[in-house]
Design a protein that fits this description.
By secondary structure, this protein is mostly helical. It has helices at residues 17-45, 49-62, 69-76, 85-112. The protein has one domain (5-109).
Length: 121
């Protein structure tokens, strides 16, 4: 199940074609990262899809941005033909924040399993 190019670009002709084609890999990578984090977080928190969209919207607000549940759902379900820069930036902000949290948890787990001298026992 791959990303349909039409879901990312509204038209494959006309002015700006080259610029639109250049962003496809970046948007697709962002979607993959979002999808992976979404599924992982949903599994850990035992939430429904719908409640996850609300939770992510709330977390984006806590990061100082605004993005509605429906917009997040449309991006995740790949229903948005041409996501706005604002949508992309908000999703990227959330993905980056989740990665930082994952890194912090991993570092904390690694330090907890280290012995008194800082080496693993």
């Amino acid at each position: 199940m791959g990303l349909n190019l039409v879901t990312v670009i509204p038209a494959l002709d006309g002015p700006g074609l080259i610029e639109r084609l250049k962003i496809i890999p970046a948007i697709f990578k962002l979607w993959q990262d979002f999808d992976r984090l979404f599924k992982e977080k949903r599994r850990l928190e035992k939430r429904t899809e719908s409640s996850m969209y609300s939770k992510i919207s709330e977390e984006i607000r806590e990061l100082g941005q605004r993005l509605g549940d429906a917009t997040i759902r449309k991006f995740h379900k790949r229903l948005t033909r041409n996501p706005t820069e604002e949508t992309i930036e908000c999703i990227r902000l959330w993905v980056d924040n989740e990665r930082e949290l994952d890194t912090e948890v991993e570092e904390e787990q690694n330090s907890d399993s280290a012995g008194p001298s800082g080496t693993r026992e």
